[in-house]
Amino acid sequence: MSRIKEFPLPDLGEGLVEGEILKWLVAVGDTIELNQPIVEVETAKAAVEIPAKWAGKVHAIHHEEGTTVEVGVPIISIDTDPGAGEPAEPERTPVLVGYGPRTGAASRRPRRTNGSTAAVSPPPVVVAPAPPPPPPVVEAPAPPARALAKPPVRKFARDLGVDLTGLVGTGPQGSITRDDVQAAVSAPAAAPALAPDFAAGREQRIPIKGVRKLTAENMVSSAFTAPHVTVFLTIDMTRSMEALDRLRALPEWREVRISPLLLVAKAVLLAVGRHPLVNSTWAGDEIIVKQYVNLGIAAATERGLIVPNIKDAGRLPLRELADAMTALVQTAKSGRTAPADMSGGTFTITNVGVFGVDTGTPILPPGESAILAFGAVRAAPWVHEGEIRVRQVTTLGLSFDHRIIDGELGAKFLRDVGAFLTDPEASLLAWT
Amino acid sequence: MAKGDRGAPARGKEVAGEPAPDFVQLLTPDGERIDKSVGADGVEYTIDLTDEEYRGLYRDLVVIRRLDAEATALQRQGELGIWASLLGQEAAQVGSGRALRPQDMAFPTYREHGVLYCRGIDPILPLSLYRGVDQGAWDPAEFKVNMYTIVIGAQTLHATGYAMGITKDGKVGGDDGEAVICYFGDGATSQGDVNEAFIWSSVFHAPIVFFCQNNQYAISEPIEKQTRIPLYRRADGFGFPGLRVDGNDVLATYAVTRTALDNARHGQGPTLIEAYTYRMGAHTTTDDPTRYRVASEVEEWQARDPIARVRAFVEKQQIADAAFIAEVDEQAKQEALQLRERVLAMPDPHPLTLFDHVYPNGSPVVDAQRERYAEYLDSFEGSAH
C-alpha cells in the first residue's frame, strides 16, 4: 500500500457532478492533521470546507483556485508517512458516492453471451435504456450585462445617448460616474491617433463556468438546431398603459406590483389560445403541441441570466399571474430559484425594454418554439385618429422555430399580441 | 409575559434568534443554577442530581458532539452520502434521552443521534444508514428506538398509534407504566401528520410526549414562517398541556421530559414540549446556511452553547476537575477515531440484502423477485455476487 494517497473530490451534496476550488488552506510541504480543513470548495448547493482525510504532508495540489473539478478527480495528494524517505507511486482511493459527470451513455459491464449461462434460460431481462441526459435548463438569449452606475448617472447617460455598457468605470467597484459619461461624450472629439496598447495587462480572462457555461451551451444548441426567424411589430400601447393605471387604482390591486410586462404576458397567453401551435416542441419525428403554457420570464441576476417559468400560467386569473411574476423575479434576483422552476418552460418572454433597447432577435430556449422580445415603451410621435400625437409606443420581436411555425402563423400570432396591447378591452371582449 | 401566565394571546411574530421569554431554565448560559422554574403548564420544575449524574451528562454531551463532528468530516471526505448534524442540539437530545426509562419507546426523526447514543445504540449504526449500507440496522424492539424517519412528521402518527397500543395492552397507570416520546422539528408542526397525531393523542389520551426541537429553521424557512404564536401554545387548541423549555439547558430538558413521561405513564395523557434550541450547523451536509441566516445570529446562539454552560457549572461547583475534563475529551477523541476506522472498513452491502426484512416472515412474491434479480446479476461477465 502506497503512502502517497490521492484524495478525489467527493460528491458533496447528493448528485453533484463538479465543484469549484475556491481556496486552498494548505500548501505543498505543509504538515497536516487528520480532519484539518484543507480546501474550500463551492458546489451548486453550498460552499464547504473539506477536512483532510489523512494526517501527513501535502505532497501535491492538483488544481488551482478557481478551477472547476469533476467529482472523482484527485485534487490533492498526501504523503501519509513523510518520515520514511522517497515516496512511491500515489494510490487512488475511490469515492463512495458520485461517479463524476456522465459522458454520453452509461457504461456497463459486458453481458455474458448466451452460451456462457449454459442450461439456465434466463428470463428476458429488459435492459433499461441509458439514463437520459439531465433536462436542459431553459435559458433565453442573454441581454448585455448591466453596467454599474447610479440612477442619476443612468439618466444622464440616457439623456446624452451614451451606452453605459461600453464604458470603463472609474467609480467605486468600477461603477460609472457622471464624469465618465461626460468624458465619453467628448471622447470622439479627441484625437483617436494614439496607438492602442494591447499589452496582456489589458485583457481579462474569465473562466467559463456555472450559469455562463450553461447559457452558452443552450444558446449554441438552440441556434444551430432550430432555424430561427424573427418578425417585428411596432404598436401604440397607450391604452394598455392607461388600463394599468386604472387597475392600480382598484382597491384590491393597490398592493400589487404591476408593470406593462403583465399585460404582455396576458396578451401572449390569450394569443397562444388562439394559435396553439406556437406553444409546441419539435421532437424529431413529431410536434408536441401543449395545451398548457409554462410561461418563462427571462431575468438578469447577479449570477447571470436565468429563465424561471410560471407553471400553467394560462389558468391563472390576472391577479394571481401578477403575484406569480413578482415572486418569480424576486426569487430569481435573490438567487434562490429552484431547478424545477427553470425547467419545463413552453413559451418565453424576454423584457429587453428594461435595458433601454427597442427590440431584439432572441434565441429560442431549447425545446420551445417561440420567444417574444418586449422592447422599451417610449413616448413617441404616432398617427392617432388621423393626427400626429405623442403616444406610448413599443416594438415587439417574435423569434420562432421555422420547422414548426410558418411566417404566416408567426405574423398572425404577433399581430394578435399587438392587437391586445393596442386595445386590451376590446380584445378581452372579443376573445374571452 | 410572566412565567406561567397564559392570558391574552400574544399577537406578533416568532422571530428566529430572539431569546425565548417564557421557558423553563435551570442552568443559565453562564453556568448559574436556577433552583426552580415554573413552566407554561403552571408546574414548578426543579432537579437534584448527584455529582456522578452531572458528570455523566457532561460526558454524553461532549462525546456526541465529537462523534457528530467526525460524521460531518467523513461526509466531506466522500465516506457518507449525507449527514444531518445535531450540532447545537446536544442538550435537547441528551436531556430528553436520559429522562427515558428502559420501558419507554422513542420515535426519532433522522437527527436524533444523541438520543440513540443515550439508548445504548452503537453509534456506527446511524452512519451505516447515511453511508447507504443499510436502511437502519438497530432492532427497534431491543433498544426501544424506532427506525429513523426521513419523511417529515410521519413518525408522530406511528408514535401515536404505538402509544394507543400501550393503553390497550394495559401498560399505563403505574410507576412501571410505559410511555412514548416522539421527536420532530419546528418545520414538522406545519405538517398535517403532526396535527392529526395531536388530535388522536388528545382524544384517546395516549401516553405520549411530543418533543419538538425548535431549532429555528425548517431547512431555510425561519420559524416566523411556521407560526404566529410560540409552538408550545399549539397544544392548548388540541386540549393537552404544552410548555417550552430551554433546549440548550440539559438539566431543564431532563426535568421537564421526566415529568411529562411520568404523567404519560400514569395515564395523564400527552404533553407537548417545545425545546427551544438552535441548529448551529447546516440542515444537512447538502445545505449552506450562510445563504439564509446571518452570522450575528449564529454568534448569539454560540453564547448559549449547551456544553459550555455545563462545563462552567461543574467546574465552579468543583464537581469536575481539569483531569476529568481532559479525560472526557480523550474519550471523545478515541471514540471518534474508532468510529472513523469502522466506517472506512465497512463492506459494501450485498445487492440481494435489498430484499431482506420486507416482510417479517418472508413472502413468495419477494422471494421470486430476489431470484430474478440474482439471475440478472449473474448475467454479467465477471459477476461473482
Task: Describe the structure using short key phrases.
heterodimer, A: 432 residues, alpha+beta, OB fold (Dihydrolipoamide Acetyltransferase, E2P), Dihydrolipoamide Transferase, Chloramphenicol Acetyltransferase, 3 domains, 7-stranded mixed sheet, 5-stranded mixed sheet, B: 385 residues, alpha/beta, Rossmann fold, 2 domains, 5-stranded parallel sheet, two-stranded antiparallel sheet, 13 helices, 41% helix, disordered N terminus
Tally of DSSP β-strands of chain B: 9
Spans of chain A of at least 5 consecutive residues whose pLDDT stays below 50 are 98-106, 115-129, 134-144
What is the CATH top level name of the largest domain in chain B? Alpha Beta
Q: What general form of chain B does the structure show?
A: globular
The CATH homologous superfamily of the largest domain in chain A is termed Chloramphenicol acetyltransferase-like domain
Task: Give unreliable regions of chain B as ranges.
Answer: 1-13
Greatest interface by residues involved: A-B, 33 and 29 residues
- Could you tell me how far the N terminus lies from the C terminus of chain A, measured between alpha carbons in angstroms? 76 Å
> H/E series of chain A, N to C?
EEEEEEEEEHHHEHHEEEEEEHHEEEEHH
Number of helical regions of chain B: 13
Q: Please give the CATH architecture of the largest domain in chain B.
A: 3-Layer(aba) Sandwich
Straight-line distance between termini of chain B:
65 Å
Can you give the mean pLDDT of chain B? 92
Tally of strands of chain A: 20
Mean pLDDT over the full residue set of chain A: 83
List the domain count of chain B as a whole number. Answer: 2
Report the helical percentage of chain A.
10-25%
